[in-house]
Amino acid sequence: MGPLSLAYLTVDGADPVGHVEAAAAAGFELAGLRITGPSQLRQRVPVIGNAALLRATKDALKRTGVRVLDAEVLTLAPEIEATAYAPFLETAAELGARLVQVVGEDPDPRRAADRLAALCDAAAAFRLRIAVEFMRFRATSSMADAQALLRRAGRANAGILVDALHLARSGGTPADVAALRPETVALMQLCDAPAASPPPGDLVTEAREGRLHPGDGDLPLDALLDALPPETPISVEVPDRSATGSAAERAKRAGDAARRFLDGYRARRWARSARRLV
Questions:
Q1: Rounded distance, CA 88 to CA 86, Å?
Q2: Which residues contact 113 (CB under 8 A, 6 or more apart)?
Q3: For the chain, which residues make up each domain, given as ranges?
Q4: pTM of the model
Q5: Residue 278 pLDDT > 80
Q6: Would you give the distance in Å from CA 118 to the centre of its chain?
Q7: Which of 2, 27, 166, 230 is most deeply packed, by most CB within 10 A?
Q8: Mean pLDDT of all residues in the chain?
Q9: Strand partners of residue 234
Q10: At what angle do helices 143-153 and 109-124 cross, to 10 degrees?
Q11: pLDDT confidence of 37, banded at 50, 70, 90?
Q12: CATH of span 4-277
């Protein structure tokens, strides 16, 4: 288990400079920056083409030592041609990102796969990997959908983003994750939530505003971590509209909670291993 990354939604509303500085203040070595929002959301702080902001962000990265793990978020949608992704990819590469988050909103599986293949080819030129995130309220709504999309696209630099909340709400289990080939898992987003799903109409609100810190809910996080390949990057994504304080304060609460939980997970895993040896 490597260094933790601070996901954008944990500090929702921060611009990239504020995000990087919050990550550093909270002890994160990595950050996942929002370059553009999903197709139905307006980007609060324009990043692409904003030369002054990009310079300031690169200065903040250099000053703090924080590195960019992932850039979010591209949308596979019927009205978006693959060529439109180029400015995003260029910006992600300029900031040093390793991964690009992608969500699927195209109901046509063949067209979505063709667009994903073209996106992967364009991303490969920048040494970027594509991480497809499934969500119950999107066209790519389950792990099975994401796997089918990757199979149809047939590109080695595409993988799956496993979000603990979206996995549970889409009916997936840690066993489903364990069944994936290790190289298929590109990224894990860590959070917690009650075991019971909200009504379908409230899923978006829960995902964007109502997650819990790891260990404060009922999701099978230990089993999920057991199922992940050992070197899977972990991003802490805990948006909480009820939280008060600055981006740095929200980041610190999330980081402290995640580290406490992961320390406890390691102790529990060691105890399980010791019992098996007795």
A1: 5
A2: 149, 152, 153
A3: 4-277
A4: 0.94
A5: no
A6: 21
A7: 166
A8: 94
A9: 4, 188
A10: 70
A11: confident
A12: 3.20.20.150
